[in-house]
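Retro notes - structure team

What went well: the batch runner handled both jobs without manual restarts.
What didn't: labels got mixed up in the shared folder, which is why I'm recording both outputs here explicitly, each with its sequence directly above its tokens.

Job 1
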Amino acid sequence: MRRLRDRGAGTVIVSRAAEPALALPADTDSDVLEIHMPPLQAAEPRGAGDSMTAGVVASLVRGLPMREALRTGAACGALNVVHRGLGTGGADASAHWPSGSNWSNGGDERCARW
């Protein structure tokens, strides 16, 4: 991820299926962030990474800060996983998803809840 940044990439995000997604935001020199979701019963795992990407991009286009965009993206990916059929979550559903999610900074226990 750092090599991509060193070669000119801005924020680098890696979705990893059931594992926490990783992000290295361009606007910080911090460690790689792990984006954790609560345990979910998957109904449809296909497309979760695409949904995460869409949530991040849509948030950035609206002018939200990167960390908020990452939260929204993670919520969109999770919403995709728990619904049958791609794109069934609705336009505003990710704004309400879920309070038990968090990101962490390399094991830092001070995680922001969202």
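Job 2
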Amino acid sequence: MRWILILPFLVLIVLFALSNQQNVHLALWPAQGWTELPVAIAVLMAAAAAFILGALLVWFDVLAQRRRARRAERRVRMLEEQLEDLRARGPIPSPPPGPVSRAAPR
């Protein structure tokens, strides 16, 4: 099943790389170095860097969600233990009925 999704993407990458073989001059200011790479390699490197950055952002968000879920699970366990303790003590006696006070109408 995974290959059904990955194979067309890989074919597109290969076709892109074969179609764009011209060299491009890459420099990074203020660095003095430069290099020449095929356009396809430069674009694929930029896409890979963007993919990795996006994956890291999603990963950090998932870590925060997992932390909140663990806290909630601990709280649920604590409340369930408290509930079991209360149930083990037996029923709470109800207070004796007292006089009902009603406010006088104005």
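One thing worth noting from job 2: The mean pLDDT is 86.
We'll revisit the folder naming next retro.
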